[in-house]
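Sorry to interrupt, but I need a hand with the structure work. Leave the record below and I will have a look:
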Amino acid sequence: MQRELYTKILMKDLDLVNSTGQKADKVRLLNVLMQLRKCCNHPYLFDGVEPGPPYTTDQHLVDNCGKMVLLDKLLKKLREQGSRVLIFSQMTRTLDILEDYCMWRGHEYFRLDGQTAHDDRQVSIDEFNRPGSSKFIFMLSTRAGGLGINLATADVVVLYDSDWNPQVDLQAMDRAHRIGQTKTVRVFRLITENTVEERIVMRADMKLYLDNLVIQQGRLVDQKSNQLQKTEVLDMIKFGANYIFRSKESAIKDEDIDEILARGEQKTSELNEKYAKMGESNLRLLRFDTEEETPDSVYIFDGEDYRTKQQNSGALAGWIEPPKRERKANYAVDAYFREALRVSEPKAPKAPRPPKQPNIQDFQFFPPRLFELLDKEIYAFRKSIGYKVPRNPDAGPDGERERQEEQAKINDATPLDDAELAEKEELLTQGFTNWSKRDFQQFIKANEKHGRDDLESISLDVEGKTPDEVKRYARVFWARCSELQDVDKHMAQIERGEAKIQRRAAVKRALDIKMARYRAPFHQLRIQYGANKGKNYTEEEDRFLICMLHKLGFDRDNVYDDLRLAIRLAPQFRFDWFIRSRTAMELQRRCSTLITLIEREVVDMEDKSKQRGPTSGTATAGAVGGPGGALASSGVGQKRKSSSAITSVPVESKKVKA
């Protein structure tokens, strides 16, 4: 099963694997690499691979994975020797499979990963290190269990899979090399032969030798060589693919555990000797070849170099094609020369304008009559210099007609008389000449922030302008905003801000209604969760979040940072690690969910009140004044119990008996 799944992953992205390093997408290559690593760990990491339903935990859990076959034999031998084992894995889902295996084999174990609570973590470590402890295995995720843990009572470390960073694996090994260790510590690294895992381990070992070279010789090595390139990822994926496809064996060999361990020790010593021969140039480039003929080439198999040998047997023989050099045309020849010829054409000259024209912006809202006089002045100037409107070759079929109309305006133009000149000067003083582009942008942002009706707040945000100036500009702006060039953009910006203001007002109203229904909301408030009750937050925590959010001010800046500080200072949460460790962003998301529930509750309450009508004042008071009935939450299905032992009864409204 494992070999078949490995082959399917390679075949699925065959085009990507056969592509050149430049053509291949690094993200896709890393995805293929990750899928191959999962396959090496265990095929059951893929959905739908495990036989079932019904799903059973028996021998197939071991037989379908080479690492599990070896681990099963190794653990049996270690248990007979009286050893205790630490098993590290990168993937928590792999730990799930190992946990099923331990329960099936009857191995007593502890598990520690990133989801383990701090208290449970320390209890497990203390129990494992206790003299006479019956626990045989301690399973840990490499990242969560690699630091700050003393497990000196274990004398065997099993690295189920390897990390890209060799220092992480070294930290994991050091969990057993602690003060108080009295036995010889043995480390076993499980590697699936002829797969990407071999290349990953090789690269990690090269990093260790590179680090050794830098520290011992005091030399600096180019940091870029440590970055994984696309071609290197491609080589890792291709490594061993020929062996996988040409292998005729469908089952894993049933070898003796001592033979497997001896072969592993021999291969490790060979690699160490090979690394010792490498020079600094090899380490700089992280190359795996030495002065000898490269034995690690992906094309050398069974002592033959298949780069020079033509293979005609087998449907998949030679499926990994050598990359071909292709000349890419990044341009269309005809389009390129067409654009090049067009560039050489002289551009049409701009129409001349009379000197000393006033700089007029659309947001200054000058009278429309001024633009008529300015256009008349421009046409008269062009007529005085004998300007002819040029033909535009790129214009459509109406281009000639438009050119003739423009030329007719120039031919019929007359200069401004004295009355029109005086009128122009008068009109130039009637616009908002003291409003700059910066002032206009501040005005738009202030409208977005406060809404178009809050002129007092808007005037405070527009620097250098008095409230009267801002109010006068606002009246003209809303009357003539259609004259602006980017009117749609500005209106959309303001409307988005006003929608946020309305949303804040609706939320504030819902919170006010909810809080007004309780005399002591910090103890009595109830939330109708329905199907949206989370598994992490308790009802006491949600109650505190809503009440404190209302107290601090929902629409205030940095309110969630202040809410986080209030949680840290609240005495009822001094031992509640979960709520104390939430970030401001996480608190905001939780409060948004609770606010949605409260808004829905208020809407339902108002709808019921409208349906009943104002026939009975007591009924209305009961719906608004008391938190009883359907508005009380049962709190069923909570995962974590509240740390508070306080119980309170909501204040019931008085009802008149019929």
Summary: The two ends are 76 Å apart (CA to CA). Residues 487-516 form the longest helix (30 residues).
